[in-house]
Amino acid sequence: MAIQKPITLQEAKSIARHLGLTLRTVRSGNYRVNFRDGNETTAYYTDDLEDAVNTAVEMARKRGVWQADTVEPRV
């Protein structure tokens, strides 16, 4: 079993951007994931970067912009 290195903030932002979402660090130190055209009702906050990326993938999947060969979600 291979050991995965932790995802970096830049990698996470790149994945979110590729999926049509934004991923930002907020003042509290948490991460905020949202659609580019989203408002506060669609925003998701977490203190875990992996959770932020996985949520971005799920949000894109639900919105229908994610393609199976686009990004390999990290689990």
Distinctive features:
single chain, 75 residues, 2 helices
Mind explaining what this structure looks like?
The chain has a three-stranded antiparallel beta sheet with strand order 1-2-3, covered by helices on one side. It is α+β, with helices and mostly antiparallel strands. β2 and β3 form a beta hairpin. The chain has one domain. Helices cover 33% and strands 17% of the residues. α1 runs parallel beside α2.
Fold blueprint:
Blueprint: H1 9-18, E1 21-25, E2 31-35, E3 44-46, H2 49-63
Antiparallel strand pairs: 1-2, 2-3
Helix pairs in contact: 1-2
How confident is the prediction overall: mean pLDDT? 87
Instruction: Provide the structure class.
Output: alpha+beta
Quote the beta fraction: 15-25%
Distance between the termini: 14 Å
Percent range of helical residues: 25-40%
Query: How would you sum up the major sheet?
Result: 3 strands, antiparallel
Number of strands: 3
The total count of helices amounts to: 2
Rg calculated over all Cα atoms: 12 Å
| Poorly predicted regions | none
Give the SSE string: HEEEH
Shape: globular
Overall number of domains:
1
* Strands ordered across the widest β-sheet: 1-2-3
Question: What is the structure about, briefly put?
Answer:
With 75 residues, this protein is α+β, with helices and mostly antiparallel strands. The protein is 33% helix and 17% strand.
